[in-house]
Predict the structure of TonB-dependent receptor.
Amino acid sequence: MHLNKYNSIFKSSLTSSLLIFSNSLFAADSQSGDADPVSDEAIDTISVTASRIARGTKEVPAAINVIDSKRIDAEQMQNIKDAIRGTPGVLIESKNGGYDSRLIIRGAGQKANYGVREIMVIRDGVPMTDPDSFSRFDFIDTQDIERIEITKGPGSLYGSGSSGGTIQIISKSVFDVDGNRVKLGIGEDGQENLHFRYSKELNDSNSVLLTGSHRAADNNWRDWNNFDTQQLSLKHGLMLDSGATLETELSYSQADLQLPGSLTEAEFETYRNTGEQHNTSSQWQHSGRYSTIWFFNTRYEQEFGDLVFKPRFYFNSWDHYHPVTGAINDNPGTNVFGTDLEFAYSHNLLGDSTLVGGVTARLDKTDGSKKYQYADVDTVFVDPDGPFGPSPFVNQIVRTLSDRKGALLSTEDSANTLFGLFLQETVRPTDRLTIDAGFRFDRMNFDIEEIAYGEYDWGTKSYDTFGAPVTTKTDTSFDLFSPKLGATYALNKTYSVYGMVAQSGQVPSESEIQSNSNLDAATATNVEIGLKARAKDWNLDLSLYRTTVTDEIVSVLQPGNQSEFQNAGETLKKGFELSGNVALGRHFWLGANYAYSDYRYQDFNELVRIMGVLTPFDRSGNQTPFVPNHQYSLSLDYDHPSGFKARIQADTWGSYYMDNANTEKYDGYDFLTSLMLGYEAGPHKVSLNVDNLFDKRFATEVKKDTSGTKTYSAGSPRTAMLNYTYSF
C-alpha cells in the first residue's frame, strides 16, 4: 500500500515536471528562430579500433558503432551499459548493478556467467581482456571516457582471440586542458557519484591531468547488493622538440561489489508484484568481488618521414577476494606485463597506401591463488537411504551465512602468455575504392598447477575432503590465425558499400580448460556486406552477415546451477543490423536501431548429466539461448542553444530460449525507457537521469538447467539520479 502510494506520487511529480520542461523547450525554441541551421557538410566519425589508424567509419569495411562524448555526457555513466545499450547486435545488461556488465556481441560472450568473454575490451590501446578472453570493467573509470568504439565480429587488428569483436574505451586526453570540472550526483537506492578533473599545461611541452571518482549504491530494493568504488588517475603528457609525444598514466582503483542471489520462478513473481527481492532461497547468499588494481601505461609516438613508430608498455597488478558458487577465491595478486610495438608506413602501392604492423607480447602471472570453503553455512542432514545411496551421511549446504572463508580447498600458480604478430595493408587504387588485407597470428599458452585438498560436490551439495592432496598440471598452447580481406567503395559523397571476409579464433578460458582439458579453440568465419551513408542531417548503417563457428565452446547448465563446457560441432549465425539518425528541425535528432539475429546449432550433441552419467542429446537445428531474434531501440535527443537538453531512449529485447533444448522462451521486455532532462548555463549544468522510467518489472536473464529448473536475475526497478557539474 505504501509502495503504491509512493509510485503514484512519483508518477504525478514526474508527469508535471515533464509538462513544465516540455513547455519550456518549445517556448525557448520559438524564441530563437535565428539559430544556426544544421551544417551543410556531411559529418563522419573517426575510428581507430578496426584498423589501428584514424579513418572515417564510412571508409572502414566493417560494422562499427562510435558512441561520442555528447551521448556519454547525457548518461549518468554509473555503468558502461548506460552508453552502450541500444547498439544493434550488442546485448548488454547488468545482473548485479555497480560496474558489472553482461556483454554479448553477435552471440559471442553468452557462455559467460559473469564478466565478459570472447570480446576484446581495450582502454586507450591497452587490453583489459586476459589472454583467456575474460574481461572486467572494475578498473575503468566511467566518468573519464571521451568515446567508445565498437567493432563487431572478427577482423579487428586489436582482437587477439576474440570472435565477438572489439570494444575500445578512449579516455579524455592529457593534452585537453579545457575540460576541468567537478561533478556531484545523488539518487535513489543510495546512489552517489563524485568526480573531479583537473588538467594544466605546465609549459609548452608538459601537461598533467588528475582525475578522481567515487561511485556507490546500496540497491536496497534487494538483499546483499552494495557497491562502492574509488578511482584516482594521474596522467602526464610530453611533447618533444622532434615532434614526438610521450603519454603516461598511473591509476589506482578499489572496487567492492556484492553479488545478489538468483530467484526461483515463485520468487521472481514476488519481485514483479513488490519491486523488491528479499529472503530468497538461493544457496549462495554472499557472493561478491572485492578488488584493488594498480594500472600503468606509457605510449610513445614518433614520425620518421613516412614511418610512424608507436611503442607501448603497460603493467597492471590486481588482487581480489571473490566469493562465488561453491568456493571463495582469494587471489593475493596477478601481475600483468605487456608491450605493443606498432608502426604505420605510408607509401604508394596502386595509389596511396598504408602498411600497419607490429608485435604484441603479454604475461599474466599469478602465484599463491587459493580457494576456500565458506566458513558459515546452514546445512541439512540427508537420509543415507535417500537419493545419494550408500553415503553414510550427507550434510547438504542450504545457504551461506557470511562470506568468511573456512577450510582451504586448493592452491594454484598460473602463467598465461601471449605472443602476437599483426599486419595489414590498406590500398586506395582509386579515389572511391579502399581495400584492407591483413592478418593476426597469436600463440597463447596456459601453464597452471593446482593442488586440491577438497572440492564442492555438486551432486551431494556438500564439501568433500580428499584423503591426500591431488596435484593437477596443465600446460597447453593454442595457435590462432585471423586473416581479413575487406573493401569499401564510395558510390558518391553520401553513400558507400563494403564487403569483408574475416576469421578469428577463440581460446577456452583458464577455468574451462581445467574443467574440460579436451576443449578445442573455436574458429569463427564471417562474411559480411553493408551500406553506409553520411549526410548533413542524417546517417545510416546497414549490415548483413553470416558467421560460421566451428568447435564453439558452449555452456551446459547442469542441475544445481553447475556450468559445464563442451565444443559444439558447428553453429551458424545469420543477422541483419540497421542503425540511423535523422535531424528533425534544428534541435531534435531521432535515432533508431534494429538487429535481427538467427543463431542455430548446426551440429551439437549436448551432454546432459543424468544420475551422474553424461548422456548425449542432439540439439542440431535449435536456436542458441539468451539471444533474441529481435532487438530494437528508439531515441530522441533535444539540444537547444538556450541550454535546455533532453534525451529519451526506449529499448526492446525480444523473446529468447532459456536453454539449449529450446523447451521454453522468456518474453524479454518491451520499451524499457530511460530519460535525461538537463539545463546548462555558463559553467553550470544540472541534469536528471531516470532509468526504467515506467518501473517495469523484468528479468535481465532467465536460465533453465537440464533438469528443467529455472533461475531468474531481476532487473532494477525505476531509479532517478540528480547531477550537478561545474566546469572551470
